[in-house]
Amino acid sequence: MANEISSSYTDIRIGGLVSGLDTDSIVESLMKIEQAKVNRIELEKTYSNWETEAYREVIDKLSTFSKEQYNKLDSSQNILSTSNLKTVDILENSSYVSIIANGDALSGSYTINEIVQLAKASSTISSAAMKEGIESSIDITVSPTLEVEGMSFFLRLDSNQEQISFSADFSTSEDLLTDIQAQLNQQFGTDRVIVSLKDDKYLTFNAPNSTLQIIGDTSSPETLEYLGLTSGDMNIININASIEEEFGTAEDISFSINGVEFSFDKSVSLIQIIDQVNESSAKVRMTYDSVNDTIKMESTKTGAGSEIVLQNITGSMFGNDGYLKIDEGTIRNGQDAMFYLNDSGKTDLIQRSSNVFTIDNVTYSLKKESTSEINFLIADNTQGAFDKIKSFIEGYNEILDMLSNKINEKKDYDYSPLSDTQKESMTEKEIEDWEAKAKLGILKSDNILYNIYRDLRNAFITQIEDADESFKNIGISTISYANNGKIDLDEATLKSALEDNMENVIELFNKPSSVAYTRNLTSEEAATRYSQSGFALRVSDILSKNITTIRDNSGFKGLLVEKAGIVGDASEFDNFIKDRIDIINERLEKAIDRMNDQEDLYWSKFTALEQAIQTMNSQSSWLNSQLGT
Hints:
- The chain is built from 15 helices and 23 strands.
- It is α+β, with helices and mostly antiparallel strands.
- The protein has a 5-stranded antiparallel sheet with strand order 1-21-3-17-18, with no helix packed on it.
- A hairpin with a 4-residue loop joins strand 13 (284-289) and strand 14.
- Helix 2 runs antiparallel to helix 13, helix 2 runs antiparallel to helix 15 (576-627) and helix 10 runs antiparallel to helix 13.
- The longest helix has 52 residues, at 576-627.
- The radius of gyration is 43 Å and the shape is flat.
């Protein structure tokens, strides 16, 4: 019996069975100290995760501001862009040209007196269809009699399929052709499909500007074989079939286009050749025209200087008898755009190699030739400039508010992260409300956020070197620090300033620096860039410094990105707080191991106690039995 009890205490925790002690409660009380150590580390981990979320919330808001105010794809949402600061009003003939003026273009009236010609690329095209119809492989003139009575097959013209059948034999090939042509005219219309004898021997079907396909008749399967035709054959090239099948080549091919060499196995298809050429650096575009069964090649560059140079290396891709029916050699038939601008006498012809070009900060896109004058007006886009500035200031103020609230938010020390045990006795709403209070002040007095806030404030109040205007004069001023240092906008004054001198107003925001921005400027270069840059350009640099995912020469990204990372970027799992959490996880794992070991130790001692008491009870019973008591 003693051995059975001992075994029970060794393998299973049975508290107080012999002693009567409440072992579970005793061990639980003893373990509270160890559990508290684990809880402290778990709370530390929770707080670090909350800190990551808080930083990423700031990053998201700064990124949103950056995307909204520095949108490179939409000039109306890019405070640094001048392209929508002028309006262009084409008074007539607007279908011939589109015009965009940037902020540096001079306002006034302009005239395109004539668009003589558009710029064109050099191009070439197959001299004839690559395939000469559906051809028979049998000389039908050899046999004295064409025994086709009762035979039939189908022809499909585009989407219309009809049966061709024979009710008699024919003594000559001419009679056979006459009968077939009559049926074709009846089924598809006069001469829509034409049947002929190639080389006076081979039956040939064709349909100009249409797709024709021959299809076998299952009720007369011998017909096509008898006539030397193949079911599925078409009057145009199958660009998805191998060049061996389509052109009958027994060798691989290679050629060069504009000096770029291409090599292909005979099993490759024409569409694969086209795709590879178009994706190469040969600067040409190949397209297939299924209506005419031709290939067109066009240089990607327009103008008189464009060219296409074609040369066979092996095989016959080009040349008089080439697969594509395009000659070898140099094709140079592009042309420049020619037009007259503000030249009523048409004495100074302007030429450009492209139909899209910029003259005096005005970008023209020529669409059609025109002998009629095209008059247009360029004027300041005062409303557009005002809207951009107002939007930027409102976004800037929201960022200052957000940063100020984060760094000044008071922490409620009565609330801390909840442990799992605490959550068990609470509802989801109670947990949510508790954690909302526990998260307050998580970034209070944060150095990175404070520096961003300070830098953004200084970007506005620091004088811009050589600026011809001041913010105060255009109705833009700073509010006191009591209001987070936000900017106040007098809309009437700003509109008036834009109408009087838009250029100087815009300069306050986007004045460029002689020093280009990089992530690796020296302190001297950075100081020069800062002093020369307009307000919005300074803000852009501050954002880049803190939220960019581009690494500098030392391998670091933006300060906030290095601190907490961005979801979707490598920094999501490689940042300062993540490294800290990894260390916390190691400490937590060790603390849990120690706690489990300590609990096992307590239970082993109480088990030993139970065993000792059981042994004493057994000995006492034996003595009593010996003494007869």
